[in-house]
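User: Can you predict the 3D structure of Nuclear pore protein? Sequence below.
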Amino acid sequence: MQLCSFFSGKYANYIEAYVENRQAISSNMTSELRHVCKQLAQCSSDVYKQAVFSLLCRQEFSDTQNAVLKSADDFLWFKLSQIVLFADGQRSVSQANSLASLQKLIHDTYGEAHFQAADQPLLFFKLLLLSQQFEAAVSFLFRAQSTDESMDSLSIHAVHLAICLMHMGLLCVFAGEECICNPLR
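Assistant: Sure. Here are the predicted structure tokens for Nuclear pore protein:
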């Protein structure tokens, strides 16, 4: 593999295993890689190497995050790549790399202020939509004001998106305490 030629000797097998096993590696390899990540954080200034190893072992590397993940798209791709999917019946040992934790990070921890949603409403909307926070995305888009002078608001787009998501069975609407999913079918 060409990708593996960039890494010396023993690290190539980690990348090969990652690629061959659908972005998953054994728990032994994960433990070894986490150890390597800790060593890299202490002795290496190569933030890109730290990012690759962090991605492989699904470990945070927030100290160097801004240097490598320069855009919201990079941030979202990296975080989505770290999500661990489990088959039915399996449980995650750590919920740190779950879709729910990413959703909470984007919506609650960072929120509109961090992503400058007032200035870039479509960016924050995109992050919500791509992290499967459909209700929050529609709600935000309905409230958002367009930065494009030719449009007054984005509410009409929110309504159209809500209709589409509802038709696809992806949007839940609350009526009092009851969640009504897909009432159009």
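Residues 69 and 77 are 9 Å apart (CA to CA). The first strand starts at residue 172 and ends at 175.
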